[in-house]
Amino acid sequence: MVHQSVLYLDDTYLTEITTSVIAAGRDDAGGAWVAVRDNLFHPQGGGQPADRGWAGEWEVVPVRHAATGLVVLAGGEAGPSEGDVVHTRVDAGLRLLHAALHTAGHLVEAASRAEGWTLAGSNHFPGQARIELTPSETGTRPADAEDREKAADRLRAFVAAAVADDLPVIAEHDAEGRRIVRLGDLHAAPCGGTHVRSLADLAQVTITAVKLKRGRVRVSYTASHRPPR
Ligand SMILES: [Zn+2]
After folding, report:
1. How far, in Å, is the centroid of ligand 1 from the Cα of 31?
2. Residue 19 Cα, ligand 1 centroid: separation in angstroms?
3. What per-residue confidence (pLDDT) applies to 196?
4. Which of 57, 108, 127, 212 is deepest in the core (most CB within 10 A)?
């Protein structure tokens, strides 16, 4: 079994590296893929979209390879061969946007927990970012438009305070080996995504709507990354 290091878990801001091809093949449709030893690329998962980027001049999208569990880079026509040394690079602007939207998702979830709501689903894709939650018996239930607007205002105040406090975003492994991501002491959740370094990296975190649909609360939001420090 070949070993692949997963660099995006350690450093969101590392966006290029020279590495080597440890496996190569073709998918059922004939498209070429390669696996590299030091993998920068986050595949789609956990509500977060995939990175985009390049291996040399070859434009690639990362995919989780079901048979091996490796992240492989898929790119259509013929790519590099096993043993080749390649310079790999992720689209840095897209990486930072995805990390900002995803981290803001944790923050919006933290704000929603304060309302007594429990996470039921999330989508961190640009232009459609939202968190879906189940209201508890004891929590707030935003049944009418006025309640929803008041809840949205409380979420906005919670989010603004956490960003102003510039809480650190820390990933660490617990005793069971799960990767736990923390926003200061405000929030903790098991997660394999990419995150900003601290909440002051976030810009324009905006709660755009709170809706109640089929018994679930849907909180829609936008966020971007400040220019890198
Ligand atoms: Zn996360």
Report:
1. 30
2. 26
3. 98
4. 108
